[in-house]
Specification:
The protein is α+β, with helices and mostly antiparallel strands and 207 residues long. Helices cover 39% and strands 21% of the residues. α6 crosses α8.
Length: 207
């Protein structure tokens, strides 16, 4: 199993990059859409955490910018009906922290936004992974912000104040997903606002 590759960023394709190692071999590594690894320029040194998928007629490498994203990918592919391509589609739609929130909040609608992932598959994913995600400890830093997922319940991710919590519930009542509502409220930096004020400010992050 190849767990990481360190080398020189050689070239970029639509869904993958080529990393050339010191031995002169160029490895094609498939990345999620929007991965921070795409920010590297040709000729720069790079390290990619990898998961290797072996089939009868093909060997593929899937790459991630940190171990948390790699571990989440490898959890996703244990779910019945979700292969490597499905897992990459999910991670291309939802960064790791947002995906974990969606799983813990049982937000199948948010997960099913991923191309090729239907509602039933999203619900099965939640059923099979919720307990595993809840037990994962430490903070996930995915390039979009960090969230401490220590503990065993989604409550650990809810905003601290009652007004923030009410604002999240109100946005959900308006038709937003739990993950969308939580993310928008979390982006409101001010403290001590009323529920209505949190909602008004949060809506700016939802358009």
């Amino acid at each position: 199993m190849i767990r990481y590759i360190k080398g020189i960023y050689s070239m970029t394709f639509e869904n993958s990059i080529i990393v050339e190692t010191s031995s002169g071999i160029g490895f094609e590594i498939f990345l999620p859409v929007g991965s921070p690894l795409y920010r590297y320029g040709e000729g720069e040194e790079i390290m990619v955490y990898t998961s290797m998928a072996v089939k009868e007629d093909n060997i593929s490498l899937y790459g991630f910018h940190n171990r948390e994203a790699l571990e989440l990918f490898e959890l996703l592919i244990t779910v019945s009906g979700i292969g490597a391509k499905g897992a990459m589609s999910i991670l291309s739609t939802l960064p790791p922290t947002e995906l974990k929130r969606a799983i813990l909040f049982e937000d199948a609608k948010e997960i099913s936004r991923a191309n090729g992932v239907g509602k039933k598959t999203a619900e099965r994913l939640i059923l099979e992974l919720k307990d595993k995600i809840g037990k994962m400890s430490g903070a996930v830093n995915d390039g979009y912000g960090a969230a401490d997922l220590s503990g065993s319940a989604a409550d650990a991710l809810m905003p601290a104040s009652d007004d923030r919590t009410e604002a999240v519930n109100a946005l959900v009542a308006l038709g937003y997903s739990k993950a969308e509502a939580f993310s928008a409220i979390s982006q409101v930096a001010e403290e001590g606002l009323t529920c209505e004020e949190y909602i008004k400010k949060a809506l700016k992050h939802l358009f």
